[in-house]
């Protein structure tokens, strides 16, 4: 019984796993396992400078002048970037910027538009 959560209604330790939900045999309370999973997932994912979650297809605004590697171009603060794509790695946003072309950004230097 050690790895099951106590009943949120009566704090009983005798809750059991009923497949899709937990059930408390003492007070009859039933509660969903799914909600807990969703809560855990909330800490994952790519977030912008303000901590807002980013998803594929989002539009973001650059909050800092960013030099483009291997060129003299600079992505100016305030530049809008449409249809981002999240990728793994240090630079976790793949996108295409008007006048510059495809490039990668760090999520910490953008905010959700
Ligand atoms: Zn209970």
From TrEMBL:
<feature type="domain" description="Protein YjdM C-terminal">
    <location>
        <begin position="46"/>
        <end position="113"/>
    </location>
</feature>
<dbReference type="InterPro" id="IPR013988">
    <property type="entry name" value="YjdM_C"/>
</dbReference>
<dbReference type="InterPro" id="IPR013987">
    <property type="entry name" value="YjdM_N"/>
</dbReference>
<dbReference type="Pfam" id="PF08274">
    <property type="entry name" value="Zn_Ribbon_YjdM"/>
</dbReference>
<protein>
    <recommendedName>
        <fullName>Alkylphosphonate utilization protein</fullName>
    </recommendedName>
</protein>
<dbReference type="InterPro" id="IPR004624">
    <property type="entry name" value="YjdM"/>
</dbReference>
<comment type="similarity">
    <text>Belongs to the YjdM family.</text>
</comment>
<dbReference type="Pfam" id="PF03831">
    <property type="entry name" value="YjdM"/>
</dbReference>
<feature type="domain" description="Protein YjdM N-terminal">
    <location>
        <begin position="4"/>
        <end position="32"/>
    </location>
</feature>
